[in-house]
Amino acid sequence: IHCDEGPYFYASTDIQYFFSNNNPYQKRPLWILLIAFINLLLEPFFSLYITEYQIIRISFFISQIILLFIVSKLFIIYLGLKLNKLSEYLPLTALLLFPNIRWNILFPSHENLTILAMVMSLLVISSKNKSLFATNGTYILFGLLVLAHRSFLIYGFLIIFYQFFLKKKIKIFVKNFLFLISPYTAFEILLATTSVESYDWNKS
């Protein structure tokens, strides 16, 4: 069993384990929720034929395929590819042959999430009319995806600082900062109002 498989397997199939100190990925509820949702859809069809472990492996694979589909679409938009010539498939092929993508396609590992964060950031920063900078939804989206992996927090900060250096408006900086951290803050408040202990494996 791959080192990440055990925690992700139990976290996506047992809610008590998800909120326990044994789960090193309690701070990735969105990513685990996606795996759990796919697993719930597959179970009725496959539970009589294959083991629970095999079903969760299929769930891992499908979740990575969904993630890579989104990454590919955003990368195509970023490069302005029309995909009507063979040469335009080469950059996309190069991206999908990244070692992280190839090695983690069958596992629940988070490395492909960091690639998504990078591509999303490039797309936002390279926006020709900079309209994405003015959209509160951009920072809320990055904030929500922090609940999948905290690399989105880092990239979100980079975008905010990039915009601040362009416009030098502290009010916009503070507003975007609050939009970015609000989903994660809300998650922590939710844990604080229940009997669940907030466990941060990275901090520990």
Note down, in words, how this protein is organized:
The protein has 204 residues and is mostly helical. The protein has ten helices and no strands. Helix 1 (5-13) crosses helix 3 and helix 8 runs parallel beside helix 10. The radius of gyration is 19 Å and the shape is flat. The mean pLDDT is 88.
Beta percentage is under 5%
Query: Sheet bearing the most strands, described?
Result: none
Task: Report the strand count.
Answer: 0
Low-confidence stretches: none
- DSSP summary: helix tally: 10
Euclidean distance between termini CA atoms: 24 Å
Helix and strand composition category: mainly alpha
Q: Given the C-alpha coordinates, what overall shape results?
A: flat
Radius of gyration: 19 Å
Helical content (DSSP H or I, runs of 4+): 55-70%
Instruction: Summarize the helix and strand pattern as letters.
Output: HHHHHHHHHH
Rounded average pLDDT: 88
Short synopsis of the structure:
This protein has helices spanning 5-13, 15-18, 29-46, 52-79, 89-96, 99-104, 111-125, 136-145, 151-167, 170-192.
Short key terms for the protein model shown above:
204 residues, mainly alpha, 10 helices, flat
Present the secondary structure layout:
Layout: H1 5-13, H2 15-18, H3 29-46, H4 52-79, H5 89-96, H6 99-104, H7 111-125, H8 136-145, H9 151-167, H10 170-192
Helix pairs in contact: 1-3, 3-4, 4-7, 7-9, 8-9, 8-10, 9-10
